[in-house]
Amino acid sequence: MLGKLKNIGKEKNLSSLMANVSVAFMGLVSFMLLTRQLNKELFGEWVLFITLATFVDLLRFGLTRTSAVRLLSGADSNAQRTILGATFRINLIVLAILTLICWSLFGIINFLSIEINNGYTLFLKFYPFLALSNLSWNNAMSLFQAEQNFRRMMVVRIANVGLFCLFLLLNQWWLQLGLIEIIWVNIAVNAVSGVWCSLRNWDGLVFLKHAKRKVEKELINFGKYSMGTLISSSLLKSSDTFIIGMSPFLGSVGIAMYAIPLKLTDLLGIPLHSFAMTAYPRMSKKALEGDLFGTKKIFYAYVGIITLLFFPVALGSFVFAEELVLFLGGNEYLDSLPLLTLIFRVFTVYIMLLPLDRFTGVLLDSINKPKLNLYKVLAMTTANIVLNVLAVFVFKSLIAVAIGTVVFTLLGIFLGFFYLKKEVQIQSRQIVSESVSFIRNLKTHLS
Questions:
Q1: Fewest CB within 10 A of the end CB: N or C in the chain?
Q2: Residue 392: DSSP 8-state
């Protein structure tokens, strides 16, 4: 019995899931503390700042991460040094460019006295500091994912998320600092993880001298498509926040309210992110070996099993939506409870559709068709932005914004299967049969 439990604990999907759940738990506590420490307007500004930061981080690391994971999977130690050094140098250059853009825009806005949401101003001013502090640990994530070392990934992430959570607990009970101080502490705790990764030679800083132009070119040629895909994927959710922030009718308060059901949705999506992280290297390895049948087999099993797992979670969330919203947001959002409950119930439909959408994208990347995945996500992003503009500026409705999320996800599923049927003759009915086969052989998979 103990031996079986050890095998289950070592299983890579569960290791990835535990890593993400641990980090997400700390993030959830931090989110709940922030909703109680900042009023709606200040909390909305924080959400806009951190959403913009997350979005631009995807731009920075999207250029190298997916391609680096692909090349690092199975690479020897010499090749790993070259790849890590190349990714670090590329990310340093991107950081310098983004710093120049942010501070130039900040100076222009101040000089011309242009009025924008304060969340945008905070981003332009503070993001370069945050980007420098999280450079090393983000670069190290490529190595961890390629090695399937999710335990190390969890420890590095908890080092900053956990410290930030600890600070917010102290802030709640004793310090009572404001938004600007909270931003500076967030920058500082990211730097702790970054320095640790540099000292352990996980990030590629000491391997800069091993970087080669040829490898950098290969990373960028693949990465330009995966970066576009990641940016577009991020825009699928973050464009909601950006566009709400531009509205004089909804503004920072609208962002704060919408963030509650959106955070709950992100929490439900954690298992999917974990399984996608383990599926991508496995599918890529099979595809690089020329085993297309094995690649599709992994795809069918993941989509079927995860959709099956998501159903009871989505159903329970739909039923207890009101209690979940109130638990996360606190009494500050009691007056908006009916609206936020309805938005979250719309999001539970979106959660059920996510596995089909996500894994079609993972499979397209695995078979070296990132361009098609980019086209798929660009179409979804375009649809979402159009729907968001209509929802915010015409209907002035947060519910309409949530409905748009379901619509663009259905579009993504259609396009994903359309491309995969053309490229690898994917068959939808195989999802059920492979899922049943996986369940029957569960003991073999765990051992």
A1: N
A2: I
| Structure confidence by residue, pLDDT tens digits, 334-352 | 888 999 999 999 999 988 8
Q: Count of CB atoms within 10 A of residue 292's CB?
A: 14
| Structural domain range at position 183 | 2-446
Structural domains counted in the chain: 1
Summarize pLDDT for 213-246 with one digit per residue, the tens: 888 888 888 777 767 666 776 777 688 888 988 8
CA–CA separation, 260 and 131 (whole Å): 26
Collapsed DSSP state (helix, strand, coil) of residue 200: coil
Which pTM does this prediction carry?
0.78
Of 273, 245, 263, nearest in space to 343 by CA: 263
Closest CA to 117 of 186, 184, 52: 52
**Contact present, 35 and 332 (Cβ < 8 Å):** yes
Contacting residues for 191 by C-beta, under 8 A, at least 6 apart: 132, 133, 134
Whether 162 contacts 190, CB under 8 Å: no
CA distances from 113 to 105, 109, 120, 127, 180 (A): 12, 6, 14, 20, 21
End-to-end CA distance of the chain: 12
Cβ contact 363:423 at 8 Å? no
pLDDT of residue 301: 83
